[in-house]
Write a structure and sequence with these properties.
7-stranded mixed β-sheet; 65 strands; 35% strand
Length: 1042
């Protein structure tokens, strides 16, 4: 049996740092000498001895477009002897470098020069501090230039603070003998293509042992065996270790947001994560398109914790480890690192080695629960526990009236389709196979889902389909807060009734179903999840499937799931919307005061038009919104509607609830909630998605996100279960367009929504355009008016955010699209806007269009830690002006904004590479807005680009004087820092940030990135280690409403 050898050269006695200078590698290494004979000036006597390097800190790195470092600063700490001493911090030196044109651009005065060519570089060495009794001197060695060797122009305590030298790289072929591990990798891991038993191929090239670049993973020889990883540059160690694992596991992926719930006042809670795996191969078996849904603890510090001992309870740090999930692009997978701590998480120690994601000890895993069911075909009674079978429903609209009538909601079982096989679009002989396959039964001649996915030696059936875009939504205690916002006592009664409601997680999957998974009951006293609150509920296992629903409009699509050559089809792929509404019978004990909880889910790109014959009549199934009553999880869900329309198109737009509730009043004119309300209207508003007619148009809608109709707006009456006349639909004047996600706002806080904000996507050109729109709501919703907020010209797909302060009504929206594969190559400039609704002379909303010329572009405005404002240019900094007004400080910037129409910031764009775009929602925390920006990769063969977290002040679009997310050195002055408004999250698409608030006011932004990696960035809201003040201490926080 052949064994493939992987060789990892972990370290040298002294680290080397390799730069790319015009395509030529140049390597430098730090040097420290110590001696009691070293004098001052240039009078050195004695040879001295070497120091011991104790630490390296990468202070700063600037990369070029190809990822090569072109400027940086490294801090080295030294012990003043090689052995026999105290091994403490005796001295530190700093080496700075720049390469090529960056030396012309750098703001660092120690490096800056002019006229440098690509193959030239500058290196500066500096004394940072000397604390030992012996004298020390510092320099470096350099190779790959015309002046190789030790640079003997040392620096030392009392000499010049720094010394800088310039070098020209050469293309030397000189080298050293291969290391033993290099030879072991070459001769122990080659692919013997010509069968001669050696890595020497008959073609004379290196194709048997060197076909890819070990640093980047790209195709092309680099002179190193593909299984040899030399970590000469410590910064590359993690990535190169990851290359070893690339051949071992398939990649788990994610495109959803995380669902984060804080169950306790101190922030302790749980994080839910949905993932999908396109392919898994193990022990000769292969499955495709499996889904994952699991939960992890989040502690009061905001740290992610696994349930290491599997007792469904958050224990101490010695029991339940801190975990980090990080994606390794070279290994093409997400890896797990465990950490221990002895000081409540303040410092963390690595525990064990990097592990595959499959070793993560979750609280529960829905995949495992579904796999454990023995009989999936028989419909279980809802009262029995979920480990005894599956409870799956569907709808057959027998009278084709679009209304869910009594007796039309049926078990999704083969017997329900007797004589009704037309709903499935197949002959009667195939009904049982399709239905039982979707329920999870394995059968010969169908796509197998059986594999030993956990490596325990037992084959399991992976029944949960891929969850790609349907971000899981949790329902626990009622959360609409109508009692706190509007003093509605009837809602307070409803909320109290369901205060300890079972936690249920809802998500759609591309197995044709909408799923409800059991999250259990939170025991705050023990930080644990229980299967029952008071022994009156069924003890469903944690993570088990309570129920599933297969929409009627998807039934004729289900037959593709079982095909052996199944390529992948979207089914229930929309993001769930959860809300409370007063639309039910108040005499029913399930609905105190008439209140209930509704679940609405679209299909996104699932459910395209398909014709089928039912009872001899042709019917068209379409993409639809599923509306379910999920008020009481101890009872089966109740289907309220599958909303569709011939002109709706694909249901890509996330709908919005519109409320209008007016109470009766008492003799003093105060709201009297004991009386019957005067008005109680609840509508679901949504808009058309990509749409096409004919085979070509339908294909263009699905594949390219095109629309060949004008944008349309719909309103659906939730109480009467019918479209609103006049909004069924309202046809806009915007051709070849569809809508983004929607936001409704009640500006004056009177329990009546005033406006719906959303964007459009115009698809008539290669680069999509769009506008920011508003639907001005009328007392009679059918009389609502559609108008333009801004003719910005870019597509807006994420739901806008609204904020009202003392003076203005703000609307925030980012631009860009990421709907189909071709969108990755879009390169038009995209923006993020902070717009003020125009006001008339009486300071009332005028609903006119915002002129873009009235916006202040704050893209290049940087805020310093002392409150000063500067504008960054390609060569340095300059005074920032608005028209002719000089803006000196942050308060001045806020002041000048008062007379503007708002602000804009340009997202990443160079006119050639794919542009950065914002396609997910914005989170607000006090006066700060947090959102993510994603920039696809230029390489069309790679699915991953890069994501950034942005944190900006709501009034300015800039950072604040304090480094809320991070800071950088300010080259113009010491002890002053630049507050950053953007930082790199890493490889892959990052979800919208979720803000976690923990103990002692600790707040962090949590995002999910490539492969299900979880990124947690602590937000600075107190004194930092450098002593800089928090932004709350620098300026007052204005009053903000929802």
């Amino acid at each position: 049996q052949s064994v493939k050898t992987y060789a990892i050269q972990l370290a040298e006695s002294m680290p080397g740092f390799t730069l790319n200078a015009g395509g030529n590698p140049v390597t430098f290494q730090p040097v420290c000498h110590t001696s009691s004979n070293f004098g001052s000036g240039t009078n050195f006597s004695g040879s001295g001895s070497d120091c011991t390097l104790t630490d390296v800190v990468v202070e700063n790195t600037v990369l070029d477009n190809e990822g090569h470092p072109v400027e940086g600063s490294l801090l080295f700490t030294w012990e003043d002897s090689l052995w026999g001493n105290d091994f403490d911090y005796d001295a530190s030196s700093r080496i700075k470098y720049c390469v090529g044109n960056q030396c012309n651009l750098t703001l660092d005065s120690t490096l800056k020069t002019t006229g440098f060519l690509a193959n030239e570089l500058r290196i500066a060495v500096q004394v940072d501090g000397v604390y030992a009794g012996l004298n020390l001197r510092f320099s470096y060695t350099v190779t790959g230039t015309y002046e190789d060797g030790l640079q003997d122009d040392y620096v030392y305590k009392g000499s010049s603070n720094f010394k800088t030298h310039s070098y020209v790289a050469n293309n030397s072929a000189a080298g050293v003998l291969p290391k033993p591990l290099y030879l072991a990798a070459k001769y122990g891991g080659f692919l013997d293509m010509d069968g001669d038993g050696t890595p020497a191929n008959s073609s004379g090239d290196s194709r048997e042992w060197d076909t890819r670049n070990n640093t980047t993973g790209s195709i092309g020889a680099d002179g190193l065996p593909d299984n040899y990883f030399f970590a000469r540059n410590p910064a590359l160690l993690e990535a190169q270790l990851g290359q070893v694992l690339q051949d071992i596991a398939s990649r788990v992926s994610s495109a959803t947001n995380t669902a984060l719930l804080s169950n306790s006042n101190n922030g302790t809670g749980v994080l839910y994560q949905a993932l999908f795996q396109p392919t898994l191969e193990y022990n000769g078996r292969t499955i495709t398109w499996g889904g994952l849904l699991h939960s992890l603890f989040v502690d009061s510090k905001g740290l992610l914790r696994e349930d290491s001992n599997g007792n469904d309870q958050l224990d101490d740090y010695a029991t339940d480890f801190i975990v980090e999930l990080k994606f390794d692009p070279n290994a093409n997978q997400t890896l797990l690192q465990r950490y221990s701590t002895e000081d409540e998480g303040k410092t963390q120690t690595v525990s064990g080695t990097l592990q595959p994601l499959s070793s993560l000890k979750t609280i529960w895993d829905a995949r495992d629960q579904l796999a454990s069911i023995q009989d999936v075909v028989t419909q279980r009674n809802y009262e029995s526990t979920a480990d005894n079978g599956r409870y799956i429903l569907t709808w057959l609209d027998e009278n084709n009236d679009g209304v869910v009538d009594s007796g039309e909601t049926l078990p999704f079982s083969a017997s329900s389709f007797t004589g009704k096989e037309g709903y499935l679009g197949v002959p009667a002989s195939e009904v049982t196979t399709i239905v039982n396959y979707v329920r999870g039964q394995e059968m010969d001649g169908t796509r197998s889902r059986t594999i030993d996915y956990n490596g325990d030696g037992i084959n399991e059936v992976w029944r949960l389909g891929d969850i790609v875009h349907s971000t899981p939504q949790l329902v626990a205690a009622p959360g609409s807060r109508f009692d706190a916002l509007y003093s509605d006592k009837t809602y307070e009664t409803f909320r109290s009734h369901y205060l300890k409601r079972r936690h249920v997680l809802y998500t759609g999957a591309n197995d044709g179903m909408l799923h409800a998974f059991n999250g259990g009951f939170w025991d705050e006293n023990h930080y644990a999840y229980k299967t029952t609150a008071d022994n009156s509920e069924a003890r469903h296992p944690l993570g088990s499937e309570l129920w599933a629903y297969t929409p009627m409009n998807l039934l004729p699509h289900l037959r593709w799931l079982q095909e052996l050559s199944y390529p992948h089809v979207y089914y229930m792929d929309g993001e769930p919307l959860i809300f409370d509404a007063n639309i039910f019978d108040a005499d029913d004990s399930n609905y105190p005061g008439g209140w209930g909880t509704l679940l609405v889910v679209g299909m996104r790109l699932g459910g395209g038009n398909i014709d089928t014959e039912i009872d001899g009549n042709s019917r068209t199934m379409r993409s639809a919104y599923v509306v379910l009553d999920v008020t009481n999880p101890e009872e089966p869900p109740r289907l309220l509607a599958e909303i569709s329309h011939p002109k709706l198109g694909l249901t890509t737009s996330k709908p919005v609830l519109v409320k209008r509730r007016i109470p009766a009043t008492d003799s003093n004119g105060e709201a009297d909630w004991d009386k019957e309300v005067l008005t109680n209207e609840w509508h679901l508003v949504f808009a058309s998605g990509p749409y096409g007619e004919g085979e070509t148009g339908i294909r263009a809608a699905l594949d390219s996100g095109k629309s060949d109709q004008n944008l349309r707006v719909f309103a659906y009456d939730l109480k009467h279960r019918a479209f609103v006349s006049g909004l069924n639909p309202m046809v806009s004047n915007f051709p070849s367009s569809y809508a983004g996600d929607m936001t409704a706002v009640d500006w004056n806080n009177d329990y009546q929504d005033d406006v719906i904000y959303f964007g459009s996507v115009e698809t008539s050109s290669l680069e999509p355009g769009g506008r920011l729109l508003r639907l001005q709501l009328s007392e009679q919703i059918a009389q609502s008016q559609l108008s333009v907020l801004a003719n910005n010209g870019q597509p807006v797909t994420a739901a806008p955010l609204t904020v009202k302060d003392d003076n203005d009504y703000w609307v925030y929206a980012g631009t860009g699209r990421l709907l189909t594969h071709s969108d990755n190559s879009l390169s038009a400039q995209q923006y993020y806007y902070g717009l003020k609704e125009p006001l008339n002379s009486s300071r009332a909303l005028s609903y006119s269009t915002v002129g873009l010329s009235g916006l202040i572009d704050t893209t290049d405005v940087e805020i310093l830690s002392n409150g000063k404002v500067v504008e960054k240019t390609s060569t340095g900094y300059r005074v920032f002006k608005v028209d002719d007004t000089v803006v000196n400080n942050f308060d001045g910037l806020r002041s000048v904004m008062q007379s503007s129409s708002g602000w804009s910031i340009r997202l990443k764009h160079d006119g050639q590479n794919p542009s950065g775009r914002n396609v997910s929602t914005t989170s607000r925390l006090f006066s700060m807005l947090f959102f993510t920006e994603y920039q696809p990769s230029l390489n069309s063969c790679r699915a991953d680009g890069r994501s950034y977290l942005r944190g900006v002040h709501y009034q300015t679009g800039t950072a604040t004087p304090a480094d809320v997310i991070d800071y950088a050195e300010y080259s113009e002055a010491e002890d002053i820092y630049v507050s950053l408004n953007s930082l790199l999250l890493g490889i892959g698409y990052a979800s919208a940030p979720v803000i976690h608030q923990g103990q002692e006011g600790r707040r962090s932004a949590v995002t999910q990135g490539a492969g299900g990696s979880i990124d947690r960035r602590v937000l600075n809201y107190g004194f930092s280690s450098s002593g800089r003040m928090s932004w709350r201490q620098i300026f007052d926080i204005p009053w903000l409403s929802r």
